[in-house]
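Hi W.,

Here's what went into the run:
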Amino acid sequence: DTAVSQTPKYLVTQMGNDKSIKCEQNLGHDTMYWYKQDSKKFLKIMFSYNNKELIINETVPNRFSPKSPDKAHLNLHINSLELGDSAVYFCASSLEVRESPLHFGNGTRLTVT
Amino acid sequence: QKEVEQNSGPLSVPEGAIASLNCTYSDRGSQSFFWYRQYSGKSPELIMSIYSNGDKEDGRFTAQLNKASQYVSLLIRDSQPSDSATYLCALTGYSSASKIIFGSGTRLSIRP
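Here's what came out:
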């Protein structure tokens, strides 16, 4: 199936741990994103990569480090997890044109205890 | 002022009626506008996109854009219980085609 897939779907971990979320798209898109959706459902952009190059880096703590080994993959590594990091993280992709909408993965629900 | 503003709702509409969802934005240079639907526990899915002033219709959905008033809306005709979801307004800013900004969403409830 053509899609944006991210793993894992659920991630429960303790404060201070380091975790990673993986994302892959087979839509042939040039641009990939990480969005964070908080408990109030607000979707906020974190990072955007175009052909493996970081082009958007919103004010996100340094503990969050995206990595794009190729244009079909964008992973998110989070160091020293904090309670406030609990949220749903969505990976998305789009073509590199202004009119191109986002295609979302199914999300990763991160719970930090 | 928030970049994209939506009434959080919930907006309750009887089945079969027209649901009207509204969104205002602050960046006059915004060029592409999208409406996404998000069911609880699911990812957002694209409903409509609109790029020029006026109306765009797709089945029961009509998107309306007024760039002078910085206003975009979504009308859902013949509302069905399956339309109950959160509707997210999104747009690309003038400065970056790759930065799609979302409103906080309007929760729509269709009552039978």
